[in-house]
Amino acid sequence: MVMTDLFSSLDGAYSLLIWFPSVLALFLYFSQVYGSALPSALCSLGASVWKNGTLNRYNPFTLLLNVLFMLLILTNLMGLTPMMYTLSSDLFTMSGLALVVWVLVLMSGWIYSPTQSAAHLLPQGAPLGLAPFLVLIETISISIRPLTLTVRLMANISAGHIVLGLLANSLTAIMGSIMMLPMLGLSIGYMLFEFFVALIQAYIFTLLVSLYQAEHP
């Protein structure tokens, strides 16, 4: 019963009641306010990732960020679709993705610039007596990055789905009563909020990967 309550937002029996008006409202809003500027906005969002990560279009890593950014957007949005399993909330999927990206970033630095990568473990001007301790701290900090990427994405996406499930359960409980319309409006509003959260979380994940890559020569 607990598992059903937590992930009941995946049940199409009542999530369609929230999902369809939310998608319709989102489509009408963007078509009226932004029109054809929405694809350009997504491109600008991706471009800001490359800029903050000091990447350029000639960097091979840019292609990986492109694919990663679009993959996360599609995965997060598919998780909001009724009867669809949320890969963004799956521990093994997200940890595997974060681990693969982290290994690629780390290996590129150590293969092409091993000396600079090793020097990055010790801050410039640090006392020699603290060098082993600082190297250990930096190594641990770098090693847990896949975990922090995974937990950040999973926690935000899962929390939103749990709230959607609770709202959907409340909506079915008061079906036909006078409180149904206010609760439906609240559910639709939160669903729209989750659409933006899905985009933002994909942006943050990709931006952090870009910043991690920028730290390595």
TrEMBL record:
Keywords, in A-Z order: ATP synthesis, CF(0), Hydrogen ion transport, Ion transport, Membrane, Mitochondrion, Transmembrane, Transmembrane helix, Transport
Membrane-spanning intervals of the chain: 12-30, 58-79, 91-113, 133-155, 162-184, 190-212
GO molecular function: proton-transporting ATP synthase activity, rotational mechanism
InterPro entries referenced in this protein's UniProt entry, alphabetically: ATP_synth_F0_asu, ATP_synth_F0_asu_AS, ATP_synth_F0_asu_bact/mt, F0_ATP_A_sf
Subcellular location field: Membrane; Mitochondrion inner membrane
GO CC field: mitochondrial inner membrane; proton-transporting ATP synthase complex
Bilayer topology: Multi-pass membrane protein
Gene3D superfamilies: ATP synthase, F0 complex, subunit A (1.20.120.220)
Top-rank taxon: Eukaryota
Family: Belongs to the ATPase A chain family.
NCBIfam families linked to this entry: ATP_synt_6_or_A
Name used for this protein in its record: ATP synthase subunit a
Gene name as annotated: ATP6
